[in-house]
Amino acid sequence: MNVQGDAKEKNTFDAIVIGSGITGGWAAKELCDHGLKTLVIERGRPVKHLDDYPTATLDPWDFKLRGRVTANEHRDNPVLSRCYAYEEATKHFFVKDAEHPYVQEKPFDWIRGYQEGGKSLLWARQTQRWSHFDFEAPARDGFAAPWPVTYDELAPWYSHVEKFIGISGNRDGLETLPDCESLPPWEMNCVEKHIQEKIKLHYPDRYPVIGRCAHLTEPKEIHLSQGRGKCQARTLCDRGCPYGGYFSSNSSTLPWAVKTGNLTMRTNAVVHSIIYDDKKGKASGVRIVDANSKEEVEYFARIIFVNAACLNSNLILLNSTSSRFPNGLGNDNGLLGKYVAFHNYRGNVYAGFEGYKDQYYQGRRPTAIMMPSFRNVHKQETDFLRGYMVFYTAARAGWNRSTSSIGADLKSEVANPGEWQIFMMMQGETIPKESNRVYLSTDKKDAWGIPLLTTSVDYDDNDIKSLKDFQEQAKGMLDVAGCKNIVAHDTGQAPGLDIHEMGGVRMGKDPKTSLLNKWNQFHNCKNVFVTDGAAMVSTGNQNPSLTFMAFTARAASYAVDQMKKGNL
Ligand SMILES: Cc1cc2nc3c(=O)[nH]c(=O)nc-3n(C[C@H](O)[C@H](O)[C@H](O)COP(=O)(O)OP(=O)(O)OC[C@H]3O[C@@H](n4cnc5c(N)ncnc54)[C@H](O)[C@@H]3O)c2cc1C
Ligand code: SF4
């Protein structure tokens, strides 16, 4: 191992961040801004903004398969193929099933992006704040551990993140969906507005609003200084955006951190484990395996931020064993890897709409209509716990609806837009349970000698009741809006495909029932912070990444403060 003398000095930093995705990028930016010499360790290859987006400006006819992947690729990647965003234009940003195996004790679709920037290149960029109801829920309703943080404590950090990344949306004044620092909103089309009005008329507790998303509808100085520009409404985002119109680590936080002169990026380095120093009673560094040469190297730092994305953070921590922590770092109570939860995406509803045939819309809007949860908000009202956010869109059927394949008939069919079609879906909160867990395989290892992760995560009765309630309510709402041919579906999809996995290293006030304190810091290993989804106590029903970023910025500020006081 390269840990002797000069090598050790060369490999020593103030801070190490594991992972360069949405949360790792934020940790890097904040720590570098505070003057810390920071090493970001990323298992994937370098992906530089603009230079490494090979498909960003291609037209449909430039793709050999017109955007599709081959039958062989589908066959070889059954898990990945279920992700809507996996296609010819984006496939280079996704992890292939066979290259990075895991053990599914119960079906779990684990969708990953192993490269500089992680899934920040691929995400759908929907960003809503949690409300105080969400932070209070576990204590009020008696599930999970109580949150050690309130909405009011996190609110300034939401603002801090929102101003930097840029979020479009209205200030809607809703208690269930707190206002954010917003750029001008996208517009609803006529049918979406019509449905919004009818829902508000019939259901006084339901508030459909235009979606909030991390797109620059009107860039401000802070965005221009990142080298980013206005979004062009193309929705080709998951190829990487040549305008920097949406937030990704690659276009925003990482180049910002580079400019401070404090960032060192080590790509192609698979973190094996965190090194715990028994004598010092704290973590001293990180052990990596070079992704290509398989050489083992150690890096050292005063503080370590774990941001490998929820399940990989769990994996690294479970694999970080020492005489002090034989069952994984910080795992005195045996709860590491437990209480993993996700979002319930099983319900969706399709409908048609007659009317507004003389109206259309402009551009490809990168968001939908969103309606914050209206179930069990103020008190328990249904036979299931918590609720769901609802999304819907209305669009006119396109050219691919055509039944004629050639000639004048085809021309005349595609010359006019088709009927209005409505799509509505749920994003349901699931209840974290001890039995929903991940753990290390005892006999299977990956190509880098690291034990495979085993997933044992499933739905429960609560999820099924919530799904049925959504289907009934969605049908009712579309009915009062005058929609036709309303059909509800259960996608039956496995957990994981929501790509919102959370938990396993949860925060809490009590070290007996949680791993991390209110600063995302291990109760019993103070110089290690976990600030990605793994730290979440419950899941809320909002898209989670904005909350992960806010926690990351807050924890980084706390860590720097503690270092200055000599506590770390
Ligand atoms: C198609 C899609 C749509 C989505 N839509 C939304 C949305 O609309 N809104 C929303 O809030 N969220 C959305 N998400 C989820 C969002 O992408 C994640 O919540 C977010 O990226 C999590 O940030 P992270 O930093 O924890 O993980 P990531 O962004 O995945 O970054 C983790 C990084 O860690 C690296 N890493 C992993 N293991 C190791 C290791 N052992 N050593 C070194 N490096 C390692 C990975 O290579 C990766 O670069 C979506 C995701 C996808 C794929
Ligand atoms: S929609 Fe906006 S952010 Fe997405 S690729 Fe187009 S310009 Fe970029």
What does this 3D model show about the protein?
The chain is α/β, with parallel strands linked by helices and 568 residues long. 23% of the residues lie in helices and 21% in strands. The chain contains twelve helices and 22 strands. Helix 5 crosses helix 12. The relative contact order is 0.18. Bound molecules: flavin-adenine dinucleotide and iron/sulfur cluster. The site of iron/sulfur cluster has 13 residues, from loops.
Annotation keywords:
alpha/beta, eight-stranded mixed β-sheet, globular, binds flavin-adenine dinucleotide, binds iron/sulfur cluster
Binned, the helix content reads 10-25%
Spatial shape: globular
Helical/strand content category: alpha/beta
The chain-level mean pLDDT equals: 96
Concise structural overview:
The chain has 568 residues and is an alpha/beta fold.
List the helices and strands and how they pair.
Layout: H1 5-10, E1 12-18, H2 22-33, E2 38-41, H3 71-76, E3 103-104, H4 132-141, H5 151-165, E4 167-168, E5 182-183, H6 190-202, E6 209-210, H7 221-224, H8 253-259, E7 263-266, E8 269-277, E9 282-290, E10 296-306, H9 310-318, E11 338-341, E12 343-344, E13 347-353, E14 369-371, E15 388-396, H10 407-414, E16 420-429, E17 437-445, E18 451-456, H11 461-480, E19 484-490, E20 502-504, E21 521-522, E22 525-530, H12 545-564
Parallel strand pairs: 1-2, 1-10, 2-7, 3-18, 4-5, 10-22
Antiparallel strand pairs: 6-14, 8-9, 9-10, 11-20, 12-16, 13-16, 13-19, 14-15, 15-16, 17-18, 21-22
The structure holds flavin-adenine dinucleotide and iron/sulfur cluster.
